[in-house]
Amino acid sequence: MYPSAQRFADFAERVIFITAIMSYGCDLAYISQKVTRPGAPASETEVVSLFTGRNAVRGIRLQAVTVVALCALSPVVPSDTPVFQAALALAQAPAPSSLPSDDPETVSVKPGGLWYGFALGWGWSRVDCDICRGNLVGGATGMLRGGITQSRALDLGLEINGWHQSQEGVDRWHGTFSLMAYFFPGPVRRLSLNGGLGINLYRASDAENAFTSTGFGPQFGAGYEIPIGRGLTLTPQLDVVAGGLGDLEFNGEGLGSGNLQLIKLGIGLTWH
Amino acid sequence: MRRSGWIGASLSLVVGLIGVSACGGDGDGLDLGPSGGNGGLSHAVGRWEPGSGDTCTKEIHDSHTTVGPDGKVYPTWHPPADPASGCTFGHEHGRDPRGSDLYEEVGGVPFGYANEQLDAYDPALQRHEDHVGHKIDWENDFELHYSGDAAGQLLQGSRCDALVKLHQGSHSKDAFTNNVHELVYHIRCDDGTDMSLTLLAAIGTPGEFVSTCDRDLHITAGSPTPLGSPSGGGKRIIPTRECVEQHMLVPPGERSNFSSALRESWQISQSIRTSSGRTVASVNPYFNVLRPSRFYDPAQEGLVGRPIDVCYEEAASGERAEGSDCDESTANGSLPDVSWDDPRSAFDGAQRSVDINSNRISNSEGPTVWYTDPFGKNGREEPFQGSVRQYIAAVDNVLAINPSGPTFGHRREYGAPSVHAPN
Description:
By secondary structure, chain A is an alpha+beta fold. Chain A is built from 3 helices and 11 strands. In chain A, a hairpin with a 2-residue loop joins β9 (about 225-230) and β10 (about 230-250). Mean pLDDT of chain B is about 90; it is low at about 5-30. By secondary structure, chain B is of the alpha+beta class. Chain B is globular, with a radius of gyration of 21 Å. The interface of A and B includes residues 206, 210 and 249 of A.
């Protein structure tokens, strides 16, 4: 396969993987929604999931079939890719003859309680300045966050994001340190709307030279918390960082101001 | 005209002038702007004489002129063959400037205008260059490049038009010692960079040059002309006999590396400075010649060796030149007597390239017109004896990183079947 085709195939594989993960999260939420007791008092902020139950296994198998179908439809993803193979194995596995009961698990949050989590994913970064190309560049992302629950509808915390890409002799890093608010608008803690302000650190370097920048900028996003255990949620999320880049510097000398955009998709775990 | 103080006149308008002003004076050396070409003939007119194989007369050749800012008549670009009569000149001046997007603004390029101004600026520093060495190149709408992986991926170079001319003779010993050569440099980019410079560029150190195959080797070759030539930035990289022996004469079965043996690169680092010493603009283009008709050979009486002669040479060890350029010149060895000035020789200096690198302007306060001495120094807002008008946009584009490229012209061949060294 030509290098460009290989890169496109890698990219397509990641898109399929992320798409499947996100749709899997939505399916789990759907399963959870179906079994939530209508009479459950929202004030107790209890949520119910059937992740460990028969429906969850069915959901996983449905997702595996989805991934297989997506890969089969994609002309650029060879059938020997890890995602395809794993999904195929899962889709072809025999249905379990006996499953645990559908006992729901609950996640409780209390004002003043600590929470923390992490996520991994993929993101696209773009640097803009007077003489910048301004290309969107894809790379892996990681996130750590933690904070204190303020109420059933609001968490506050510190979020650290890292993005990295290495291509043709150039390493690019982007980090954010943001004070964030996570707002849960629904009657139960599922969808969160996130916003905050933080520091952006950017670096692109080769063997001889480095471009660096430090700046302030806002961060917005949305997440979805899916209870999967006692105090534990699976959290797919989408974030957009649109920060002022500050002065872009070349080997420590200023090249003028600019700005930075980072769009990232991720999935992680959060403990309450 | 914003860029130029004159409009280049095509020769049909000027032919008559030559006749009536052949005995004209040199003018007063003041560059005061447009003039009607009544300042007489410059020293550069009439310096070319037809060789034995050239079919054009001197008169036909000298009809290709333009009018300089001082009102004098100067030679300018012409094709290798006269369009009207079809006769041949045996030399070329590079790419037809009329195709440049800047041509409408800058007009014809007068050859030798800065040299002429030097006569007026300091008669003790005369520098009259030969005619055939004036070489023009241009490119429209090219993108400047940044060197380095990170800069190349992250930064977008501005888009530019450039029209340049350097006197770059590659047939004689002149450049072994003489570091002062006329440069005309017009560039306009979409980031506001805009300048039109004409000057005598001091390229490296007078009296010496740098070897093509050893960039640390500075070879002192004699006294410069003029004797008081200033030192400048950059360097003139010129092939030597040692380079020929390293890369052109090869054992049986191997191929000569003609580029490593013979490539010339004149690397300019030139600034425009005010009388107070402040730099308002600087450029550093590289002008390269791929197949010159000379190399430095201290064993020769005139210090000049000829690549075509090496094609016929066989060392005691059995080493000899093998490959394309010699094959092309000698019809694969079937022509036993191709001389250095034979049109059949590929070593005629007609294959060249130009690297456009940084174009720094620090002139946000203006003015856009500076009058400098012929070396681009002592810039003032008013003209003075021997001054040269420089147009520099009122911008400040100096960044911590400079473009380095692109190269253009390297895929073009300016020669013609009639072109031969000296060219």
